[in-house]
Amino acid sequence: MGALRLGPLELVIILVIVLLIFGVGRLGRLGKDLGEGIREFRKGLSSEEGEGKKEEAEKSEEKTA
């Protein structure tokens, strides 16, 4: 099987079909919700990373004490 390659015409056809199914207003809300979800996901990843660094610092302080 070949790789899935979409040209400009195929993308336009897909966009038209999506617009017909969801409508412009609903599609805008879906995009907004998707953007907010991605933003929250990134925020969660960065907070976990910060917590991990904080735990490492606490462990190194315990070892030196």
How would you describe the overall organization of this protein?
The protein is mainly alpha-helical and 65 residues long. It has a domain at 22-64. The protein is 86% helix and 0% strand. The chain contains 2 helices and no strands. The chain has helices spanning 8-22, 24-64. Helix 1 (8-22) packs across helix 2 (24-64). It is elongated. The model has no long low-confidence stretch (mean pLDDT 81).
Summarize the helices and strands and which ones pair or pack.
Layout: H1 8-22, H2 24-64
Helix pairs in contact: 1-2
Cα Rg = 22 Å
Q: What is the straight-line distance between the termini? A: 61 Å
Gross morphology: elongated
Secondary-structure class: mainly alpha
Looking at the chains present, what oligomeric state does this protein adopt?
single chain
- What share of the residues lie within helices? over 70%
Strand content: under 5%
- Poorly predicted ranges (pLDDT <50, ≥5 residues)? none
The H-and-E topology, N to C, reads as HH
The number of E-state strands comes to: 0
Task: Note the total helix count.
Answer: 2
Give a quick account of the main beta sheet: strands, pairing sense, barrel closure: none
What is the residue-mean pLDDT, rounded to a whole number?
Answer: 81
